[in-house]
Amino acid sequence: MTITHASFVTLPVADQDRALDFYTGVLGFEVRADRRVGPLRWLQVAPEGAQTVFTLSGPGMGDFTPGSARGIMLVTADVDADCARLAAAGVEVTGPDEAPWGRMAGFRDLDGNALMLLTEKEGF
Predict the structure, then answer these.
(1) What is the full per-residue pLDDT of the chain (124 aa) written as tens digits?
(2) CB-facing half-sphere around the CA of 88: CA atoms within 13 A
(3) Distance between CA atoms of residues 27 and 24, nearest Å
């Protein structure tokens, strides 16, 4: 096998413009692609410098249900500060809590996709 990385993660959303505002305005992601592919819009965002991107998959882009993504872990240098920023933006946050592998918290995007923030424990 010669797999090197994941290219993208699909985040099913009901409204791509609304999701774009959340991922860029609240999470600070950058737009990596925003183009029409026939009648569909190919929209991808990612944290600055990230290799893996997130495809904000709107209606008609496969058999996806908005809000069905789970278990997406986003690594951050300061989970507490990011939780405070999310809460200030009106996002409901669970945690942060200590885990053997680091300090983590959970939240959902506007469609209900479940994401986690993690500040990794050194040496884990």
Answers:
(1) 999 889 999 999 999 999 999 999 999 999 999 999 999 999 999 999 999 999 999 988 888 999 999 999 999 999 999 999 999 999 999 999 999 999 999 999 999 999 999 999 988 7
(2) 9
(3) 6
- Assess contact for 81 and 36: CB atoms under 8 A: no
Query: What is the DSSP code string of 29-96?
Result: -EEEEEEEETTEEEEEEE-TT-SSEEEEE-TTSSS--TT----EEEE-S-HHHHHHHHHHTT--EEEE
Which residues make Cβ contacts (< 8 Å) with residue 33, sequence separation at least 6? 42, 43, 44, 53
Tokens (6 digits) for 85:
């920023």
